[in-house]
Fold each of these.
Amino acid sequence: MSTENPHLLDALDVSLAEFAAAHALPKYRVGQIRRWLFEKRAGDWDAMSDLPKGLREQLAESFRLWTASIARHTTADDGTEKLLFALADGGQVESVLLRDEVRRTICISTQVGCGMGCVFCASGLDGVDRNLTTGEIIEEMLQLQRLLAPEERLSHIVVMGMGEPLANLDRLLPALEEARRPDGLGISARRITISTVGLPPAIDRLARHEANYRLAVSLHAPNDELRNELVPVNKNIGIDAIMAAADRYFDVSGRRITYEYVLLANLNDRPEHAGQLARLLAGREALLNVIPYNPVAGLPYETPTPERQHAFRAILERAGVTVKFRHRKGNRIDAACGQLRRSQQPTVVDIAAQI
Ligand code: SAH
């Protein structure tokens, strides 16, 4: 098999249609192949046992099914599993499967590295290398799904792994299409959350898109001065423009916006920050997800003490903000953004369970 073969998952419908036409396949074959991929969780062409052997060989000669290999696979006591993928060009991304009661949530990456430069985040320490392709994003989903026991079903997707999803919408949206399709993963848009640093034109583009995904905005600071420090791209954008775009998204989608706030000791965890945050969110249909910082080796930031966390929370709750603190999951397997890739010290935040 040549590595030059196209990745089947990159343009699945077109590739299968062309292949079916070129080989004069009966129509139902395409459906069979799709079922093997999405429903029956096939690991390779050979697993597709109701396809004639000759056809499986022709498929293998025409397409690459997987382009990435699993470089590491870790499992935590609570059932959280994390995959580190080695991509065909040597880049690495990570993806997580979270088990929470009946929920089976996957957290996927969209870029190798990240260009947003949030000062506390492991993913962006070395900048962004490239966008993932549509096929690579679907591959993450399918490989994570393959970790499930036969009786388990994927229920939710959060696009909260490595990278800025709104900087790679062209490739992400077709991948999410496959996630939603009944003959894909069959996960409805309201169970799919896209997390962004806040890029207004891309938020507006998402608002025009036919599917109403849930939107999470990573705020991390209640004023521009502080946000410029923590989230450097903010200098060119500003909180007002982000809130306005998020409001428009809410108007169009009817989906409550989630705001994420990584709580960093002595930086954005003071009572006045909580007060400002409460004023910013007042009157908005919003869920505030506070994430006590998950330390990244080599970075100077610290997790606030439980007392500071409680005080922060109390101010917001008194002001009537709907606030959730994310509980920790996946301890000891580095299940936070970009951490496995850097092979950091443990402990982790559940990046998903609360949305
Ligand atoms: N680029 C997107 C998605 C990436 S990460 C975004 O900015 O939303 C998902 C969330 O995890 C973001 O809110 C991010 O700021 C947060 N995060 C990153 N590193 C973290 C860390 N070390 N501890 C806690 N949260 C972190």
Note: Residues 134 and 171 are 5 Å apart (CA to CA).
Amino acid sequence: MTMIRTNEEIMEIAGKFMTTGKIREARPLGPGFINDTFIVVTEGEGNARYILQRKNHIVFPDVPGMMKNIELVTEHIRKKVVAAGGDPLREVLTVITRRPETMTEAEKEDPAGHLYYRDGSGNFWAMCLFIEGSVTYEKADTPELCYKGGEGIGKFQAQLSDFTTPLNETIKGFHNIRWRFVQWDEAVRRDAAGRVKDLAEEISWIDSRREEMLAFWSLVEDGTIPTRVTHNDTKISNILFDGKGDVLCVIDLDTCMSSTSLNDFGDAIRSYTNTGAEDDRNLGNVGMSMEMFEAYTRGYLSQRKGNLTESEISHLAFSARYITYEQVLRFLMDYIDGDVYYKIAYPEHNLVRTRAQYRMLQSIEAQYGEMMRTVEKYAR
Ligand code: GN1
Ligand code: MG
């Protein structure tokens, strides 16, 4: 998926957007698994920096619909930030729109046309403001950081709790395990890369938990667990912190859509509390830190206490099992498919990720009782 582009090409694409100063430089940024990200430096007026992304239109089949979601959600949050006396350029993502003089008539008529640029090869590009002084983490160093992250996601959910405009479903069935099993069964049957024969053990990890995962998802389907506007990709690297460790804002809003709030909790626990890396080769490093779990839970519930239903509270701890399991399935499925979804750094990467996430799942399962008690302690 990744294509090497020259600095000049990126700068030309960046020129389609309403940056303030003159574009001076563009360079690749960060380890995103899905999109290609660049930082664009300008000089003159404001000396601002920007994030330019090639949005992966294989993963996101409706990039205009996705960008429309992002515009609606960020506008909504921006009003909340302003009302609370906060800084609207730092406490929410700012989408940078197209330079009108570079837009075609068709783009001007498209309700999302101002939000992206489509290059000659059909790639979609979008831009947002880079927030100066922001810091990201691949994993949480301290319980304080976990607490702050939980507070940040709790606040994000609270800011969107009165958002009523229907959002586009940017990836079909993203955290819907019933739909994931349809894809999974098809992937195993197809065996596109001829790898299934060597994966009996890994496949048994998926099979042995299928029923309990479907039982949980049934509660979302029948409305026992409510549907809300959620982020759906709350791993720690999708949060911007300031130098003091406070959350500035939540980024990577590509998957922001209607789902259960539990997915945001579960995905955060999957990443914040891991004592190792998501793709650790040394499984001895991997496991859930109860201390980090406690801190995240406390931070999250400080913002959401009183606004969650009984069914949500009683499934918070389970959501960490659900999302981590789903991540095992997604990494393994991509390995079976021949590495077509996630960017990989080496041939076995998706298998290494699968094993590391499975170790994380086992660790979460082993501490489940204590997780339930911790949630109870802070939920009421
Ligand atoms: C992807 O886009 P990024 O790198 O923030 C993925 C998440 C996975 C995550 C695993 C759209 O997140 O769902 O949990 O990798 N995003 C998409 O690290 O599939
Ligand atoms: Mg990301």
Note: The pocket of magnesium ion (ligand 2) is lined by residues 32, 237-238, 252 (CB under 6 Å).
Amino acid sequence: MYQAPRGTVDILPQEQAYWRYVEQKAAHICQLYGYERIDTPAIEDAGLFNRSVGEGTDIVDKEMYTFDDRGGNKLALAPEGTASVCRAYLEHGMQNLPQPVKLYYISSMFRYERPQAGRYRQHRQFGCEAIGSDDAALDAEVIDTAWQFYLSMNISQLFLALNSIGCKECRPVYLNALREHYVQHGDKICVDCNVRLVKNRMRLLDCKKPSCQPVADTAPKSVDYLCQPCAEHFDKLQRYLGLLGIPFGVNHRLVRGFDYYTRTVFEVQPQGGGSQGSLGGGGRYDGLIEELGGKPTAAVGFGLGIDRIILQLKEQKIDVSPLAKPRVFVAFLGDAARDEAIKLAASLRRNGIGVIQAIGSRSLKAQLRQANSLAISRAVIIGEEELKAGTVILRDMTSASQQTVPIARLPELLK
Ligand code: HAM
């Protein structure tokens, strides 16, 4: 027997109401903030992610699904959405549109991670990207979009962590200070951090190993090394978030795992941690479009993990509206009545009434049992007698009361 690949899940019918709920809230919030939907392919040139997410990051070095297709092209399953949206922005000349261009997506992402609760090898994200402005008001608006999205789903007890990691001017100075600090404490840090010290210094602050915590906690802070424009940008952002009434805390150790980030980074986390880690994250990526061959173009966005959001909805016992199901069951007694049942079910559906039609040759009793187990409220029964008289029996499945009605009146009665 085959099973779904490790780290992937089937989203079964009983789960779908949660998915529709989240997707509808996402579409609504995007309409409020002026984002238009974009769908990019699940596969991209692997080079796109090497270039943007960055070689030396866990996602590219350890987690990306890459393969050669039959034509010899090196492709990757998208591990994230930002690079694809920027590729599409350039490919379709969106730099000629009024800026910022605001796009959103709901897509599957693929990462070869160690599966655990809330961490999968295929997960789904709702992402927003606002491309074409470096105004801190746009960062604030992007964060507000994410925050209002969680509120619109009634999710509470969230924490917004914020940081600024500077730009290509001020970051090198900060990274030097970070190296000095870690070199001084070289004997106390883990093997991975020794590798990060050479390969990806920003990620030193991300280390979860207990032995590295004192070193990371006392490390220099990026905000103390920001150049004047970055410092002003970060001040403005915090002021705007205040205006919008969004609570946040500056977390000096928040760096996030992508090379493309500049200035603002943020994450939304369940208060008190929780097993699943962050519910969403994002930031500014002012150098990415240029890195991909475009003109210098500032941008900011986020990606929110829908699988984890749904775990939160369940944990917080938030009701989502059930999906509409057919309310009518058409049953029959005898072969001649079956023909009429087929026609009747079709005609009700053409009148916009959802119908489950009895299939096979079960007894009438068994058909009604099926209607009951589907929690259907009305059954329409056709037998030989009704056939001759041009009537049907309409049965209320809850009270078991029945009435005989002319077949022609049925759509109107059921509506
Ligand atoms: P990310 O933080 O890697 O950012 O992913 C965004 C969110 O996706 C995470 O906060 C988490 O909720 C969810 N997520 C990530 N990995 C998994 C996983 N293995 N299983 C379940 N959920 C997961 C990005 O991908 C950036 N592209 C976000 C962004 C957009 N930054 C700017 N624009």
Note: Residues 328-414 form a domain with the Rossmann fold fold (CATH 3.40.50.800).
